Amino acid sequence: MEKMEAELQKAAVLVEALPYIQKFNRKIIVVKYGGSAMIDEELKKKVVQDVVLLKLVGFKPIIVHGGGKDITKWADKVGIETRKVNGLRVTDEPTMEIAEMVLNKINKDLVSLIQQLGVKACGISGKDGNMLGCRKKLSGGEDIGFVGDIVNVEPQIIKDLIENDFLPVICPIGTDENGHSYNINADDAACAIARACKAEKLAFLTDTEGVYLDYDDKNTLISELTLSEADKLIGGGNIGGGMLPKLNNCIDAIRNGVSRVHIMDGRIPHCLLLEIFTNKGIGTAIINDEAERFYNGN
């Protein structure tokens, strides 16, 4: 009897996922992959399993990944000192070379993991097909080296890969009009790519559970947040630290045509499936004021 109950619970989970699979079938979902889920090998495998499952049930996933911790590790190994201006890494020419090598290695490692599960993947950077055009980013008016702000996105190469049944895996390196390479914040790259590809969903894997009404009270996690509510939270000073730029990125993505943006804890195994395919979810979904609300309360 207990075994039958366990099997029935599995069936109930699949049935709960059905309306979400129906609603988002053949829609693009951009997954910004970062945080601890990139460092922990077991979590990495589970994230890849989630993305592969999304593709196999009819989604069109795109992975955009960072690699800041690995860049710092390898820069230290070769004796390059990490310098920061206003909290942002200064990317000089030697650091840029390290960054590009490290990000490309991460990229191809992810491609290999995906393909081990039977899905075709293709790893590219923002340099391919002039996908991510950028200009030099300044921090408080100060030069921080080869760090870029995105000025345009050419998504054709991504569309071609998806059309040919590949899962695109993208690292955030772009070029300026003179062909110089720039490291781009992966959150910014994911948002820009989601806008350009008219993604239905953008999912951020982070090291926090989501957005809180009161960060010091973990019982105040918000499951669903409209643009108006998000603006009110920011205006009221409720959001701080690393969540503020991330939430601003989410708001910008929604205002530029992305239907839903999810912020979730990448340290939870199979967080993508739990957030996207269950009624309650585990993180925070940001939506337009007029959008259909899926979750049963906050």
Task: Give an overview of the whole structure.
With 298 residues, the protein is α/β, with parallel strands linked by helices. It is 41% helix and 24% strand. It contains 9 helices and 14 strands. The chain has helices at residues 2-24, 41-56, 68-77, 93-116, 156-163, 186-196, 227-235, 243-255, 271-277; strands at residues 28-33, 60-65, 84-85, 88-89, 121-125, 132-139, 142-153, 167-171, 173-175, 181-184, 201-206, 224-226, 260-265, 284-287. The strands form 3 sheets. Strands 5-8-2-1-11-13-14-12 form an 8-stranded mixed β-sheet, sandwiched between helices. Strands 6-7-10-9 form a 4-stranded mixed β-sheet, with helices on one face. A hairpin with a 5-residue loop joins strand 9 (173-175) and strand 10 (181-184). Helix 3 (68-77) packs across helix 4, helix 6 (186-196) runs parallel beside helix 8 and helix 7 runs antiparallel to helix 8 (243-255).
Distance between the termini: 35 Å
Low-confidence stretches: none
Order of helices and strands: HEHEHEEHEEEHEEEHEEHHEHE
Number of helices: 9
| pLDDT averaged over residues | 87
Helix content: 40-55%
